[in-house]
Design a protein that fits this description.
Leucine Aminopeptidase, subunit E, domain 1, six-stranded mixed sheet, alpha/beta, Aminopeptidase, elongated
Length: about 475
């Protein structure tokens, strides 16, 4: 299935065309008389009298060849609500054979000059599907034709929406790939192709990482026949040499848990354990495509956590890139080991304005927040406030969780500088974040986003149809636009 969006001056045959029209919250359709026939108006008006007007979208089948989609717009509607309306409309028309719809922008009763842009953005985000490995692909086309005087979008806005869609879809594609295809070796190769978008890509392989002393990251991947990598992706869009914004992602391409083996049930979902890195990659692609006026760097640690004769053992002690030693009590608490080296490296090499890391780090965050909020941990109140506000604008919500020195005693080790789990139990997400904070050495503003409950959805969400969500690309882009461009 594919979707095509066109901007047209008029309807070729308005009496038989499928229409998308807009009304107020009360579904007062009298302003729509000039856009539809008297028969259509009476037909819809009669049905609305016996309908549940709490709904936002109605689809009226006028006859076997014509549908009228009626969408209600509430007062002071927010941009993400407009996107959700577009997504809901797509869900209601995504069936049957090829179809064509005409969206009448003149019927829009919102003062948001970018309404049609957000509406189409929602349609596009919802239309994503990952069918790469299906031998029989559904060949179907939905055409969305926008007519009327309110359809105009500036070139800049069009570029923004397109870049966000491509960045989000790229992140979703990466997360959706199976582990036998997107292992660290293949992932690193794919990142090289980002150079064509104007990004600077550097790959540090096992040999370079060993020389640098990134033993925490290397320890996670040592049980795999695949290599381990740290990849930096730079975008220099500012006209000055300002400090870059830094985004760091966990890229565990498959996580068996190592010798601290995960249960077999749902282990197949551990292909998603690189979702944090996918968000960073999608975000950087978005910056490049829309020519963002910032300097930014994305850093991803790519490993595979496997069981073998060479795999890391519970009780091993490793020396991290920072020089601090870590007792690995649980090999399934591996993401924080990857991020520990990646964070210190990013801070030292790039001296960024701030660092935001993303990771599907703990199951505990799902116990706390489910699939409604990602967990936010930070050493900086201003950065936290900016992230929360950006999340509210795009409906990718964050909930700030505590960090406190009293949690440190739970990860202090008798045999090394620290241990990678809290063996006493409790506060699993917080102690993981407390662990990461130890690798921020120069008081750089930092935020950790635990996205374990947000990176994929088996039942689908407002702007996705199930599977990888691309959570974080739109959030971090909004953060950047609002505060740093």
């Amino acid at each position: 299935m594919s979707i095509k969006i066109n901007f047209k001056n008029n309807i070729s045959n308005k009496t038989s065309a499928n229409l998308v029209l807009f009304a107020d919250e009360a579904f007062n359709i009298s302003p729509l008389k000039k856009y539809i026939s008297n028969f259509d108006y009476s037909f819809i008006n009669d049905l609305l009298k016996t309908s549940d007007l709490k709904k936002k979208v109605f689809v009226f089948e006028v006859n076997s060849k014509k549908k009228i989609v009626l969408v209600s717009i509430k007062k002071n509607i927010k941009s993400f609500d407009i996107e959700n309306l577009g997504a809901e409309v797509y869900g209601r028309i995504n069936y049957g054979k090829n179809s064509e719809y005409f969206v009448n922008s003149n019927s829009i009763i919102s003062n948001d000059e970018n309404f049609i842009g957000y509406f189409l953005h929602g349609i596009k985000l919802k239309s994503y599907e990952f069918n790469k490995y299906k031998s029989k692909k559904e060949k179907r086309l939905i055409s969305i034709n926008v007519i009327g005087n309110k359809k105009k979008l500036s070139v800049q806005k069009q570029l923004r929406f397109k870049a966000l869609e491509e960045g989000t879809f790229y992140a979703r594609d990466l997360v959706s790939e199976p582990g036998n295809i997107l292992h660290p070796d293949e992932y690193a190769k794919r990142l090289i192709t980002l150079k064509k978008d104007g990004l600077k890509v550097n790959i540090y392989d096992d040999k370079k990482l060993k020389k640098l002393g990134m033993n925490a990251l290397l320890g996670v991947g040592q049980g795999s026949i695949r290599g381990s990598y740290l990849v930096t992706i730079e975008w220099n869009g500012a006209k000055n040499n300002s400090k870059p914004l830094a985004f760091v992602g966990k890229g565990v391409c498959f996580d068996t848990g190592g010798y601290s083996l995960k249960p077999a049930k749902f282990m197949e979902d551990m292909t998603y354990d690189m979702a944090g890195s996918a968000t960073v990659v999608g975000l950087m692609k978005n910056f490049a495509l829309r020519k963002a006026k910032i300097n930014a760097v994305g850093v991803v640690g790519l490993v595979e956590n496997m069981v073998s004769g060479n795999a890391q053992r519970p009780g091993d002690i490793v020396k991290s890139y920072s020089g601090k030693t870590i007792e690995v009590l649980n090999t399934d608490a591996e993401g924080r080991l990857v991020l520990a080296d990646a964070l210190t490296f990013t801070e030292r090499k790039f001296k960024p304005k701030f660092m935001v890391d993303l990771a599907t780090l703990t199951g505990a965050i799902i116990v706390s927040l489910g699939s409604e909020y990602a967990g936010l941990f930070s050493n900086d109140d201003q950065l936290s406030k900016q992230l929360i506000e950006a999340g509210e604008k795009v409906d990718e919500k964050l909930w700030r969780m505590p960090l406190h020195k009293n949690f440190d005693k739970l990860i202090d080790s008798k045999n090394a500088d620290m241990q990678n789990i809290n063996y006493v139990g409790g506060a699993g997400s917080t102690t993981a974040a407390q662990f990461l904070q130890r690798f921020i050495l120069n008081k750089t503003p930092w935020a950790h986003l635990d996205i374990a409950g947000m990176a994929f959805s088996k039942y689908g969400g407002a702007l996705n149809s199930g599977g990888a969500t691309g959570y974080g690309v739109r959030l971090l882009n909004q953060l950047t636009e609002d505060n740093y461009e």
